[in-house]
Specification:
By secondary structure, the protein is an alpha+beta fold. It has eight helices and 13 strands. 43% of the residues are buried.
């Protein structure tokens, strides 16, 4: 069949089940809650052929930056231009602002063709959380901390992610580190189906980032977790040593002029999830 036989439409809730079938086909761990959260925070498009869904894309806007959180095409329909057309629809929706994504090796050639540039490698770790004690200095966030958390997140990423932070607060656990009464680091962990995804982790140094993760992990003994690290996070060796091992590497990419993604001393050590782009 040809792409001319394919119809494109906005992604709606009724497309979630068939999109989950496509992600399972691709070997990805996605759950209904994941996709509904992506739709709640952003929008997307689907491709159908003979009333059968053959491709989906989801995107989120954080201030002036768009992120592509999901692009999947039926394996029987790949290399027929469907993924490219879904991306073009998303880029048209994004307009001029910068667009970011995390690319697998399969998707990278398409993104390069569409004008994306490589930023850096990101490393996914996965494993069962062992018994772990919380370390001194990290504590649980309160609702009164959300404004300061949003501020240091913006300073570390260059993005306005208040909607994401609100979702993390409402659905997950959020830890902070304070100095002189002010929040100088934070981290979150959120359940995606059967997996606890740790991130983002924003801190001033690796030691702070590790303390934040220890507090989160202390409440999730025995849970399967996923952690997506930036390059030079300083956390990989420690995670490997406690059984949360590196399982894959992907590529952070950007189209358009990249905003500065850090304002010292704040830095992203762990991504929120590959579905929310970079960093």
């Amino acid at each position: 069949m040809r792409i001319i036989d394919t119809k494109f439409a906005e992604f709606r809730a009724e497309h979630v089940d068939e999109t989950l079938e496509l992600t399972a086909q691709a070997g990805w761990t996605n759950f209904m809650d994941n996709l509904l959260m992506l739709l709640d925070l952003g929008c997307g498009y689907v491709a159908t052929m003979n009333n059968h869904l053959v491709g989906s894309i989801c995107m989120t806007f954080f201030g002036e930056v768009a992120t592509i959180g999901l692009l999947v095409v039926d394996e029987k329909m790949r290399r027929q231009g469907i993924g490219g057309q879904l991306m073009r629809l998303a880029l048209e929706k994004a307009g001029e602002p910068e667009c970011r994504l995390i690319a697998t090796s399969d998707g990278k050639p398409l993104y390069l063709k569409l004008g994306f540039d490589r930023l850096e490698a990101v490393h996914t770790h996965r494993g069962v959380i062992p018994c772990m004690e919380a370390q001194h200095g990290a504590e649980w966030a309160t609702r009164d901390d959300l404004e300061q958390i949003s501020d240091i997140d913006r300073r570390a990423t260059g993005l306005d992610r208040r909607t994401l932070i609100s979702t993390l607060w409402n659905k997950g656990l959020v830890a902070v580190i304070r100095h002189a009464g002010k929040v100088v680091g934070y981290a979150a962990i959120l359940r995606y189906g059967s997996v606890e995804v740790a991130g983002p982790v924003i801190a001033c140094d690796t030691y702070q980032a590790r303390r934040l993760l220890c507090l989160l992990f202390s409440q999730r003994l025995g849970a399967l977790t996923r952690v997506v690290l930036r390059q030079q996070s300083g956390l990989a060796e420690w995670l490997n040593s406690i059984g949360i091992a590196e399982v894959s590497t992907a590529t952070a990419m950007c189209r358009g002029e990249a905003h500065a993604d850090t304002e010292p001393p704040f830095r992203t050590y762990v991504l929120a999830s590959s579905q929310f782009g970079f960093p």
